[in-house]
Amino acid sequence: MGVADGVSFTARLAATLLAILLLALLGRRAARLLRQPEVVGEIMAGLFAGPFIVAFFGTDVLHSLLPAGTLGTLKLVSEGGLALFLVGTTHKLRLGVQRTVRRAAGPVALGAFVLPLVTGALLAGWLVWRGDADVRGHAPASAVVLMVAVSLSITAVPVLARILEERGMLGSVTGRVAMFAAILIDIAGWVLLSIAVGLASGSPAGFLRSMEVLAAGALLALGARRALGSRLGTGMVTRARRRTALVIGALAITLAFASERLGLTAVFGAVLLGLAVPATDSAPWESAVASVTRAGRGLVPVFFAVTGVTVLTAGFDDTPWGLVVVTVVLGALSKVGGGYLGARLGGQERRESLRIGVLMNTRGLTELVVLKVGYSAGVLSPPLFLAMVVMALTTTAMTGPCLQLLKTREPRAERVSAGAVT
Where can this protein be found (predicted)? Predict the structure, then answer.
């Protein structure tokens, strides 16, 4: 590539990145007008930009706007940004909570994880039994069943935290129980996701290799956690916080691509690093991790746009819309119902249990990451991926209106009392 070609390529790439970020900004503003979490508008704007161009202007226009070289570079940028963002997201999964909250959240997590897991397995089993290869794909049945089951069971911690914060519920008992239950669900989800990717190899040797990588990575994360939490690690981050943030970012990207080369998903390495970074008050790790997370968060819209261009443009025509409706209904009922039953078993009263069930139905960004992993691993077909994406967006968008509906249905005396307390 000559100098002129290099300058032209860089200019096109910069213009494309700017267009994606502006589109994300418009999506966030639209979401605020609709009283939705900003991330919902950001996701929808990025995901459906590519399909919109194809539907109204044709595939040739899309290819002229995004040539193969530019799209390939955008994929690398999106994967690197996602790795940076996931370090901070999973780092928060290790933050401590009160014992009473843990005790109440356990049954909620169990109900909101197991019931959707079983529902997803039954849905996938039905698709496999039907034998429609265009819908169920060509991956081993065990991988498809586990992947769909995990996809229905996810609750997105980042989006849930934002919803709770916007509604002033983050410090309430209901909010703390929902957050910790979501943390437990996501930890279990990451483990099962790695197993599903291992099963996708279709051979015992490939699966065992993936599990060996998973076990080795967990041991390395445990060792890194102890080393970073030592006096030497504490002194390092205290003296050079910015430099430590750069090291964490470089490690996140390196581990992400290394884990992909070893047969697991790229996000696995970033997740392990996030879990390895100390989450204590003895060292200012939170500040260093926050810098990494902000950098990744700024690039997350690229992930949405690339996903829409590479996946959704291929999945519209072959998608049975009956499957989309069934997936949305099963996803919502199993999550809300499972969270409600778990909260009731944990001793919560009926109205609070229903509110917790609605909060557990928030899937958001975490769900999209899981789905993209399943698609990239060849487990989810384009139609099944699209059905799951619509389910993720619909259930996340339902959370705010459902919470508002529950609030308006409260007895007037309770609303006056709650306002007095506030």
Answer: Membrane
Q: How far apart are the first and last CA of the chain?
A: 63
pLDDT at 417: 41
User: Is the pLDDT confidence value at 400 over 70?
Assistant: yes
Q: In whole angstroms, give the CA distance from residue 374 to residue 265.
A: 9
DSSP-derived secondary structure for 273-331: HHHHS--STTSTHHHHHHHHHHHHHHHHHHHHHHHIIIIIHHHSTT--HHHHHHHHHHH
pLDDT of residue 265: 67
Nearest Cα residue to 111 out of 347, 395, 341: 341
What distance in Å separates the CA atoms of residue 107 and residue 347, rounded to the nearest whole number? Answer: 9
Under a CB-based contact definition with an 8 Å cutoff, are residues 76 and 337 in contact?
no
Query: How remote is the C-alpha of 332 from its chain's centroid?
Result: 17
The pTM assigned to this predicted structure is 0.79
Q: Is 137 left (phi over 0), alpha (psi -120 to 50) or beta?
A: left
Domain boundaries, the chain: 3-409
How far is residue 349 CA from its own chain's centroid? 30
Q: What is the pLDDT of residues 206-262, one digit of tens each?
A: 677 767 777 777 777 777 777 776 677 667 677 777 777 888 888 888 888 777 777
Q: How many CA atoms lie within 13 A of 25 on its CB side?
A: 6
pLDDT at 208 (0 to 100): 76
211 vs 340, higher pLDDT: 340
Closest residue by Cα to residue 313 from 119, 103, 51: 51
Could you say which architecture CATH assigns to the domain 3-409? Answer: Up-down Bundle (1.20)
Tokens of 66: 């995004």
Residue at token pair 């990744």 = 296
